[in-house]
């Protein structure tokens, strides 16, 4: 492994507000919670170029925020001496967003994304980025000519150009 002598613990600030309730003589109860959490100096495996001889290094990177809410409902449907039936339902929603990665900015002051790791400022961690495809280049004269214009050959995947109008 490549040494990471400057690595330190992650730092997290979190806020949570919740409300618990019970009505109808405890036949219906539950809770609603909202949370907000920011984590700085996250411990992440950062990919490295292959010429370094290492595939990754463990680094402290940027800042991520998580926010969301959770709802839990509990219903005591039947409660007798020899038989109890209760139902519990829950729902949760979490949204995360990368606020900073390396604090590295371009000449316009915009923080740079890390495309090699798939990390983009303002986007969720683990968001999947891929090309939108439109079939496969075929072995006919029209496709062979069109594929050659974009450096492709028959059998390669056709990648849609979403930046051009189809006029």
- The fraction of residues assigned to DSSP E strands is over 45%
> How confident overall, as mean pLDDT?
86
Tertiary shape:
extended
Low-confidence stretches: none
Secondary structure: number of strands: 6
Quaternary organization: single chain
Characteristic key phrases:
mainly beta, 167 residues, four-stranded antiparallel β-sheet, 1 helix
Verbal overview:
The protein contains one helix and six strands. The protein has one helix spanning 141-149, and strands spanning 11-23, 28-47, 56-79, 84-100, 133-136, 157-159. A hairpin with a 4-residue loop joins strand 1 and strand 2. The chain is extended and about 80 Å long.
Topology of helices and strands:
Blueprint: E1 11-23, E2 28-47, E3 56-79, E4 84-100, E5 133-136, H1 141-149, E6 157-159
Antiparallel strand pairs: 1-2, 2-3, 3-4, 5-6
Short description:
The protein has 167 residues and is mostly beta strands.
